[in-house]
């Protein structure tokens, strides 16, 4: 539904977006990750047609954003960064205004507003002036505006920014639910959000795509992904080390902590994923370890994020 | 067309949702009355016409029109709603016209509320209604011209005060450039074409014709092209904001 080809945008000498190429299909929720200033918002502004691209092609539902701008914009719902909203209007007035600009009048308009008010839980503030809303309600009002015409494509720039944990959860599940029949791109700084709501994530840094995959694929790229953390009672590190020798799939073992009567170690596997675990079970059986902790590290997105986007000198190990 | 009306409706709502609109109308009416009766000596003249009323309009509009229009785009820039508005399925022209028409309608409403003056002269004597109509038409066009200038200045900055001051300066230039004391000042050293050019962009000569009851197509064209030119420039500035 969204195809971006070699999209480039420069502001003077500064290259904000550098040959981005990706696509989002119906039923996909694409998470946009990246450090501040990586070009996330600029890319979204380009896709929504707010900024003209310096080079490259964007098409939304088959309409070229530069050439068939109006048709493309009709298909898109957009929540800009910081959820801008007219401060002199009421929530109802604002949603009515946006619905009319989207070509909804009369009963269709009323129905559309009722639908988004319910989805975004705005019943309580419907007649309140936007000026007096809390940040969470402001955000949800602007989100309601983005989905008032039930668009096929949704572009959300930090939709959960400024919301409390409960609201974040609600918005996340709303995005996930809507993602089943729409193509959604949303940007965020919160990595757990990507795991919770995205079918695919894109990490961009300095205008370039540096990683692209499902959250699980990305997590597998974490330096510690696939390692085993094992805690054994009544055993010392010195004794454990020789016992680990027969493990053929072990690359190296690393001591995490040794206190009192127990030891905690991290085992880095070698070769095929998951081959180390059965071996370890055999070993535990043979030496009659009293294992009190065993954990397969799935990798953490923020480790991936940091290892990809930090300059080499600052990379975590 | 519907989009233009939707935007105009929102802008009008924005005016009347705060007391500013009412304060503005009251100030406009008070000042118009003050100049007409006290400075213009409406009664002492003993002539049943509205010349002492219309003659002050350029000076009233010099400050009041920028005050009405200064927020049109500045506010959008400040709140960041420009991004929202321009990613809606509307053309920039629909947005520009909608906003312009809303403010113009508001100014026309203020102007319309001076109708008791017309009733007064009609009661006192036998005025020339044609001249009064022409005067009102000229005044409305002048307000529209100044408003287009304010549209441009407000699209330049997110700061309403800067937008106001810039607009007053440009309007003052247009008032003075056709004014004999000013043209006399440059006539001695400037080449003739410059003097002519200066005089022809001045709004006063064109506005005077309307006051005398003459609706000349050239004057009409002048004000219309003033509006088109500045609204077009606004669209250029808005496009530049997005590049």
Describe the protein in words.
The complex is a heterodimer of chains A (317) and B (243). Chain A has 317 residues and is of the alpha/beta class. Chain A is 34% helix and 29% strand. In chain A, strands 6-7-8-3-9-10 form a 6-stranded mixed beta sheet, sandwiched between helices. A 4-stranded antiparallel beta sheet of chain A has the order 2-1-4-5, with helices on one face. The longest helix of chain A has 14 residues, at 106-119. Chain A is elongated. The two termini of chain A are 39 Å apart. The mean pLDDT of chain A is 87. Chain B is an all-alpha fold and 243 residues long. Chain B has one domain. Chain B is 82% helix and 0% strand. Chain B is built from 15 helices and no strands. Chain B has helices spanning 2-16, 20-39, 42-45, 51-54, 57-69, 71-79, 81-86, 92-112, 115-124, 129-156, 160-176, 180-187, 192-201, 203-211, 217-242. The longest helix of chain B is centred in the middle third of the chain and has 28 residues, at 129-156. Chain B is globular, with a radius of gyration of 19 Å. The two termini of chain B are 27 Å apart. The model of chain B has no long low-confidence stretch (mean pLDDT 89). Classes of the chains: A alpha/beta (317), B mainly alpha (243). Chains A and B meet through helix 2 and helix 3 of A and helix 1 and helix 7 of B.
